[in-house]
Design brief:
Layout lengths: L10 H15 L24 H11 L7 E5 L16 E2 L4 H4 L6 E5 L9 H10 L75 H13 L6
Parallel strand pairs: 1-3
Antiparallel strand pairs: 2-3
Length: 222
């Protein structure tokens, strides 16, 4: 607190964000604590480029077996440089990521600490625990994933879309109103893994997936 560039990342705001994160994960009895804060003054004023800045920062400022949250200055998080997530990024629990050092991290802009009552961090934690976007096509091999082909009636929910049958089919934008069958979308505007403005919930299958991931892949976290 008090350093240039802290912006919205004040102790009070961080506490509020953690409260909201814990409320979101309470249904699966998972909670998080804000352990320590470090000010990385060495990189102040520089844009965060995933493939360039990240290895430099984590070499000096990283705690093992902990989710390291890096809050960067407003508008300094570059899309590109292997970053395809517009709201920040993290690493999914793939075998490669789990076996690569210093990948337990989340990067987001500090102006987003209070955005959506902590929904940005909840969204990124969802990715960290293995959830795709509601609009992703989980069978896709493209990067970023192809837009969802899931139908509104749920008839292909096990083979298309995000892979969860209790999340609504999502084209990823409100301007797309009907699916391939001409049925109207019920856009999941309140789901944490969407890109809409009213995010406040996970579905039960999303919770189940995260709980399984924590128990089988992330149990090493302090």
């Amino acid at each position: 607190p008090g350093y240039p560039g802290v912006g919205a990342a004040t102790p009070g705001n961080l506490s509020f964000m953690m409260q909201k994160v814990n409320e979101a994960f309470a249904p699966i009895c998972v909670s998080f604590e804000h352990c320590k804060t470090f000010y990385v003054q060495k990189f102040c004023g520089s844009n965060w480029k995933k493939s360039i800045t990240e290895p430099l920062v984590t070499a000096e400022y990283y705690t093992d077996k902990t989710i390291n949250l890096y809050l960067v200055p407003d508008d300094s998080l570059d899309q590109g440089y292997t970053n395809t997530e517009k709201e920040g990024y993290t690493y999914a629990p793939t075998l490669t990521n789990l076996n690569t050092p210093r990948k337990d991290l989340i990067v987001m802009m500090h102006q987003q600490v209070l955005q959506g009552n902590g929904a940005i961090l909840v969204h990124l934690l969802g990715h960290y625990f293995g959830l795709p976007h509601t609009f992703d096509e989980y069978t896709s091999t493209t990067t970023p994933p192809a837009v969802s082909l899931e139908l509104v009636d749920g008839s292909n929910c096990t083979t298309n879309g995000d892979g969860f049958c209790d999340t609504e089919a999502d084209p990823g934008q409100l301007t797309v109103q009907t699916d391939a069958n001409g049925q109207l979308y019920m856009h999941p505007v309140d789901n944490f893994m969407s890109y809409y403005s009213f995010r406040c919930r996970f579905s039960q299958q999303q919770y189940n997936h995260m709980a399984y991931t924590i128990a089988t892949k992330r149990l090493y976290l302090h």
